[in-house]
Amino acid sequence: MEFQQLVSFVAVAEEHNFGRAAHRLHLAQSSVSLQVKRLEREVGVELLARAQHPVRLTPAGQVFLAEIKEALELVERAADAARSVAEGRSGTLRVGFNFAAGRLVLPSALTRLHAEHPGIRVELTQARSGPQLRALAAGELDVAFVFGSPTGGEVSSAPVQRVDLVAVVNRRHRWARRDHVGFRELSGQQCILFGREQCPAMYDEIHNIAAGTGTQLDVVEKIDDSLATAAAVRARPLVGFASAPRLSQGGVAGLATVPIVDPVPNLVLHAVWRSGEPSGLVRSLLGCLQVPSREPIAR
């Protein structure tokens, strides 16, 4: 039983005439007649009383029409739903983000997305860049907001905003009241970092600047969990690193942030999706991003 057979039958049943049904469907009358005959053979009963003028439904045809119109309406709704998702107007969008994106990018973007596309449901997952990229590759996220531009053909990305990195110390540390520290002053300071797989871009930025400035980093501990890192820095005279937005607006109790200069370590926040043309849902979110023009992305 083919879709065109059903459409042809409904048109004849509603128009009571094969010619008018053919005109409505932009088909030849012979084609419409053939489609209806094939449908009747498949169903096994006569659906139309052709001898009557205008054409009438048989009792079996009346029952069949009522049932088939409901089915066609379901097909149309399914097609509308599919088009809506493909065009980015509805559906579920799984978004991963790091702290900087959650503070600087997503609040305005999601507000605009909800206003322009109320049919889109957003599922949010906060994680560092490395775990996000692994979730994206596994098909668990549709778009990720991470530091750095991932390499390789598996993903595509777009720069969103540049973010500075700062030093994090406890309130008793001698740097706690400093306006800033030079990057070279990190030599001789006990530092705490994380495994590179947690955030490759941040890890590489810190180590590359250290190598370029001849700064010998003394990394005495590596902790992947950010809350555990904060607890360790709060308890001991260690220097940690964080994106400036993480500890802005009042900071965290017992901790102080100190800007790093000469040079300023910084990262570009990227929106990342699986390679190829972004889906309609991802395009809708990308279209809602507000990239600050006052801060150029390119170095």
UniProtKB/TrEMBL annotation:
A single GO molecular function term of this UniProt record: DNA binding
Gene3D superfamilies: Periplasmic binding protein-like II (3.40.190.10), Winged helix-like DNA-binding domain superfamily/Winged helix DNA-binding domain (1.10.10.10)
Keyword Transcription regulation: yes
InterPro entries: LysR_HTH_N, LysR_subst-bd, WH-like_DNA-bd_sf, WH_DNA-bd_sf
Domain of life of the organism encoding this protein: Bacteria
Keywords from the UniProt entry: DNA-binding, Transcription, Transcription regulation
A GO CC annotation given for this chain: protein-DNA complex
HTH lysR-type domain sequence ranges: 1-58
One family name in Pfam for this protein: LysR_substrate
This protein's record includes keyword Isomerase: no
Similarity comment text for this entry: Belongs to the LysR transcriptional regulatory family.
PANTHER family in the cross-refs: HCA OPERON TRANSCRIPTIONAL ACTIVATOR HCAR (PTHR30346:SF0), TRANSCRIPTIONAL DUAL REGULATOR HCAR-RELATED (PTHR30346)
Name this protein carries in UniProt: DNA-binding transcriptional LysR family regulator
